[in-house]
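In response to reviewer comment 3 from the previous cycle, which asked for concrete evidence that the modeling workflow produces usable outputs, we include below a single protein chain processed end to end. The sequence was submitted unchanged, and the resulting structure tokens are shown without manual editing.
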Amino acid sequence: MDFLKPSRYVPMNRRRRIYEGKAKILYEGPEPGTLIQHFKDDATAFNNKKHAVIDGKGVLNNRISEYIFTQLNQLGVPTHFVRRLNMREQLIREVEIIPLEVVVRNVAAGSLSTRLGIPEGQQLPRSIIEFYYKNDELNDPMVSEEHITAFGWASPQDLDDIMALAIRVNDFLSGLFLGVGIRLVDFKIEFGRLFEGDMMRIVLADEISPDSCRLWDNASGDKLDKDRFRRDMGGMLEAYQEVARRLGILNDNSSSQPSGPVPVN
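The workflow returned the following structure tokens.
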């Protein structure tokens, strides 16, 4: 399939909706084996117990994720990303999502600090990979490799591929953000199975953005990620704009004037 061939754009309200999550909607793609990933302005935390709409967040996440996935593709990391279609949408390959959230931690923060009593901000002895079962009703519980293989969510070979890719992504992101004065504390990624004829391979899916990464300013320690929303710190959109600006992808046409969060009951 020629993914570089321009496809006729179909307005969002005329497309078949495949799936809607907290921050994104997936629509049927223009060609078999493709989907359109639409980034919403919704901000959620604590398994959707906290929810607001922040104008412009989806635009920023789309641009940041596009930038990162494009570079990963160029480095030979297999991903579902094909290209950005507009300010809020991407063309992606359709994959079978593996029901795991893969968290890579470089610095103690969040639930790791809470669980193990490690002061937030302490550098870890080495990067740590954790797995969480994707299930909102169960609040995405942490699981072991034994659980994953016993219940058939992924095979031992799948896990080997996932961990190898997670390490490559961590190495790339750590260097990318360090180069613009940002400390990569931790991040969450997801993977899927891409079927091409009789062949199957594990590819990086979902998104990489300040929604899914903990990013701290290297000099001041200021948080430039979704923790600003989780912890009622304010300035979430401005923090995302700062990340985009440092990566060199923010311009007057891609940024929205912040109107502040709109609580959703």
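DSSP finds six helices and 15 strands in the chain. We consider this sufficient to address the reviewer's concern, and the full set will be provided in the supplementary archive.
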